[in-house]
Amino acid sequence: MPYADVNGLHLYYEERGEGPPLLLLHGGLMTIELNFGIALPALAERHRVIAVELQGHGRTADIDRPPTFPDFAADVVALLDHLGIERADVVGFSLGGLTGYELVISHADRVRRAVLASADHRNDRAGEVDAARLPTEDDFQAMRDAYLATAPEPGAFDAVAEKTIALVHSFTGWTDDQLRGVQLPVLILVGDTDFIHVENAAEAMRLLPQGQLAVLPGTTHMEVTRTTLLAPVIEAFLA
Q: Cα(first)–Cα(last) distance of the chain, in Å?
């Protein structure tokens, strides 16, 4: 199995297909298969897909380093260096979408186009989230099962989950000016019943100079990873 030793991390990744490089970044507490198992085969028909498991996720063991989006993005850039890839398209979901924001803002020279799915650029939204929009108990069980099946330290799931949830709740987001400075095409993608509200996604789209917006019908946050609409929407944008 392929690993890259970057930034003190034994980073797991998978490659499939041939063509322009396409980097896939999974959601929090997910693995490559759990997040992209449906979309990945279709994407690999036209792209050299590089799917990554971030710090503490799947086959990539956690290290003694607090998780941050700048570090996640730096790990991904180091992987591109390891693979000799100057620029890649990027698709990130949820936690991976937040990492994608950091990439297009801080490492724009390494990104050609980006799809940022189910990730809010701001972290100061007030109000309760409709429980029907959130991951279910079955979703969390699937995350736990995927971790137990792949992780070097299966007993670390709860510790990784605690750190990941703390990261998502504590990060400050990015400023309007930072988004206005992104001079590359970015597709903001959400489900119409995502817990990232459509109006929030539209706000990010308007701030990005080359922003586009896609809203998947009848789709919750977790269903974004499962719908057969995902790959065709990504392909249309990247083309």
A: 30
